[in-house]
Amino acid sequence: MNHGRTRGPGALGSFFSGLLISAICFFFLFPFIWMFLVSLRRRVDVLQPGKIFAPLTFENYRSLFDFGGVTDFFRNSIIVAVFSTVISLVLGSLAAYGFARYNWKKREDRAFWILSQRFLPPMAVVIPYFLMASLAGILDTRLVLIICYTTFNIPFTIWMMRGFIEDLPVELEEAAFVDGCTRLQTLRRIVLPLVLPGMAATAIFCVINSWNEFVFANFLTSIHAKTVPTSVMMYLSVSGVKWGEMAATGVLAVLPVLIFAVAVQKYMIRGLTFGAVKG
Question: What is the pLDDT of residues 212-260, one digit of tens each?
């Protein structure tokens, strides 16, 4: 009887905690759920939100693939995200190693200056980028997007990777030097294998930032290099908004990132907790 009395309040508290967490999750997921439902509605039913049990149709998705050219937008987004992430990881990791292992005058000031580049809002630099890209003849190309995304991802990569490298005991590298390894060999054989979880977590954030970016892709591309997030602008016209096609595009744009995040979440958690516990 005593055990039952002590378990009662705990079970009731767990129930209300679970109910509260479920309500919070539903609150944040509701916009995506509503967007998915709108993408399955006919155009005549979209303007009647009170009509809950409207007939469902895949016509909006069919029109995207038949007339919207969504496959080209996905191809552009994938190429830009992959190349910008790889370049950012290579350059950012090398720079992070220099900040973590070398001492020079005003090192922390230089590190903060690099981080300050991440503070710039895209709207503040999109016009200079547009002018330089126009002079270079690379407007509406994947190259200009790769350059823009890389310049914003490298500062983030440097600060992320610097923390992971500094968590490694410097004695490991000193032991490699004693065994005759050069600095480059030590970096390749000792440091990089140990910070792979951190690199994975950094790569995930770089991919998500590149995939979801809108401002640069909207102002620096028009037809040939248009990405998935900017394709929603195609459904705005003087005759009205094609809510069904726009919602379908939003669902297709969110799904790859969502699936990617779920698939690599263990690497993200491992990377974010890297070095948190030292034995």
Answer: 899 999 999 988 898 988 888 888 877 778 888 888 888 888 888 888 7
The pLDDT, as a whole number, for residue 268 is 66
pLDDT tens digits for 93-107?
Answer: 999 998 888 888 888
Predicted TM-score (pTM) of the model is: 0.81
Ordered by start, the domain boundaries in the chain are 2-39, 62-272
What is the fold, at CATH topology level, of the domain defined by 62-272?
MetI-like fold (1.10.3720)
pLDDT score, position 272: 59
Residue 275 Rama label (left phi>0; alpha psi -120 to 50; beta): left
Give CA–CA dist 110/63, Å, rounded. 51
DSSP per residue, 4-69? HHHHHHHHHHHHHHHHHHHHHHHHHHHHHHHHHHHHTB-HHHHT-TT-TTPPB--HHHHHIIIII-
